[in-house]
Amino acid sequence: MRFALEKVIQNETKNGTPIVNESELEPFIEGLHGDLRRGITELQAAVSGKTSLLKQSQSLLEPYEKIIQMVENNEYDNANKEVHNLLYQAVDMKTVCVNLHDVVVGLDVQHTTKFKLLRVIGEAEWRSSNMTPKVLASWMIGQMI
Asked: Which of 13, 54, 56, 91 pairs with 33 at a CA distance of 20 to 30 A?
């Protein structure tokens, strides 16, 4: 994946000036979780929006941070709606779970709270190949109560 993205960056480099900061490439790739198409799309968005890859990567997690914030504030109906909105935008449940995981791992909360959320997210990811996404999303938020 790194090779493919570096090739795109190399082809897009203008006048010898790189379009992205090399130090931001590794965290950017890690945040893609193997999704090369998404990487190319986000790379294009960063370049056209003149934002850094790091900032672009962080913006990808904003909807998931919002969902976890709603769960922390006991706004479960709103959190459920936000997850369903992601599904309606063609985000698959595995991606939802991976991104929620990344947000929860970085939370500064009690370990019991963090691991409860991670257990639910992990189980939802495991179930994602066998359950209807809409039902699974509601189940997942319900388990976070």
From this structure: 13
3-state secondary structure the chain: CHHHHHHHHHHHCECCECCCCHHHHHHHHHHHCCCHHHHHHHHHHHHHCCCCHHHHHHHHCHHHHHHHHHHHCCCHHHHHHHHHHHHHCCCCHHHHHHHHHHHHHCCCCCHHHHHHHHHHHHHHHHHCCCCCHHHHHHHHHHHCC
With a CB cutoff of 8 Å and minimum separation 6, the contacts of 58 are none
- Cα separation, 87 vs 23, whole angstroms: 32
Contact 69/82 with Cβ under 8 angstroms?
Answer: no
Rounded Cα gap, residues 141 and 145, in angstroms = 7
> Taking a C-beta distance cutoff of 8 angstroms, is the pair 107, 68 a contact?
yes
What is Dmax (Cα atoms) for the chain?
Answer: 54
Q: What is the pLDDT of residue 115?
A: 96
Cα gap 129→16, rounded to integer Å: 45
pLDDT for 47-86, tens place per residue? 777 778 878 777 888 999 999 999 999 999 999 999 999 9
Q: Which two tokens stand for residue 120?
A: 């639910």
